[in-house]
Amino acid sequence: MLKTTVLKPTVNIRRLNSTVPIIMLSMLAVLTGCQTVPTALSKAPSAMAMNNPLTIGMPAIDRQGYIAYVEEQGVGTAKISTLYRIRPDGSGLQLIDQLNGYIYAPTWSADGQMLAYSKQAARQHPKIYIYDVKSSSHNLVVNVEGSNLSPSFSPDGKKLLYSSTVGGNADIYEMQLSDGSTKQLTTLPSTEVQPSYASDGQSFVYTSDKVRAGRPSIYRYSFATGNAALITTGGYAASPQLSLDSQRLAYLNGRKAAVMMLTTGQVINLAETGLDEPARLSPSGQYALYPTRQSNLGGQVGGQSSQSGGSLVIHSLAGNTSYAISSKTGGVVRSPIWGR
């Protein structure tokens, strides 16, 4: 039997200095029994956006979007993973999915109406689901043997890239969502994972260790030629994401969340998150997002947060200012992704 849970977050803004606030988000709902998606969203305090110096100046495409993320509680067989979405000002918190197990790598469609992600229950392989925002439905789309991970929507929302070990090695596949037909795009004996479409749909970026096992690099695959070109990063690099204009690349640079300007090769190392998580870009490409266990603000690694649990850090790439949306539930925050 399914029960509906409405989350009622309380949000406080605490200023660390004149330019960097920190938003503390507390989820007050007690989750018991079998949970499903709430039927109503929590409402933001009316003064919140006015008091938040980053969201005041955000482009509408960013400010009106949602950030999806995973929060983990417990360890081992007791691990509970919960998928949420929230506005970048800390309002509108909604529970999307929850299970005893793992939820991996959510990703938005270009129009923000669909969210794809992998989830893995105990003693099962990871499966890929799509959540439809309008209908609040969850649809299983990839359920083959092996690890099925890292989905990415094509710009028109008709196809889905993902990685799978169904053939033995980890390779990248493309699925037509209309009929479920799939095409294998990589066939190397190495590991090819974490695909992410470019906004024009003509290429995608992904992670591969084909040069040296266990030492991943980032490549860009062209659908026209079927060939992949190395994106030079200078070391361990994984989990790529292109901005809509393909001028910036967000990724994991060693153990740091980072953003590269592809035209110049300049790298902005945002923070060592303590989670080996990459940076992700806002729809406009003007902001970077990453999870952390610490108060990593202004591009600096600070001390341990005074609050328990993890945080989502939003960093302005132009203004070099940051703020954090922090959970007080004690969970580990992972895999944030910012959609329209």
Stated plainly, the CATH topology is called Neuraminidase
Q: Tell me the name of the CATH class.
A: Mainly Beta
What is the CATH architecture descriptor?
A: 6 Propeller
What percentage of the residues does DSSP assign to strands (E)?
A: over 45%
Q: What's the helical proportion of residues?
A: under 10%
Which structural class should the secondary elements be placed in? Answer: mainly beta
Can you tell me about this structure?
This protein is mainly beta. The chain has one domain (3-339): 6 Propeller (Neuraminidase), CATH 2.120.10. The chain has 3 helices and 27 strands. The longest helix has 4 residues, at 48-51. The protein starts with a strand and ends with a strand. Belongs to the TolB family. Keywords: Membrane, Transmembrane, Transmembrane helix.
Topology summary:
Blueprint: E1 3-4, E2 10-15, E3 21-26, E4 35-36, H1 48-51, H2 53-56, H3 60-63, E5 66-73, E6 80-86, E7 94-108, E8 114-121, E9 127-132, E10 137-142, E11 148-153, E12 159-164, E13 171-176, E14 182-184, E15 192-197, E16 203-208, E17 217-222, E18 228-231, E19 237-242, E20 248-253, E21 256-261, E22 267-272, E23 280-281, E24 287-292, E25 311-316, E26 322-327, E27 332-339
Parallel strand pairs: 1-4, 3-26
Antiparallel strand pairs: 2-3, 5-6, 5-27, 6-7, 7-8, 8-9, 9-10, 11-12, 12-13, 13-14, 15-16, 16-17, 17-18, 19-20, 20-21, 21-22, 23-24, 24-25, 25-26
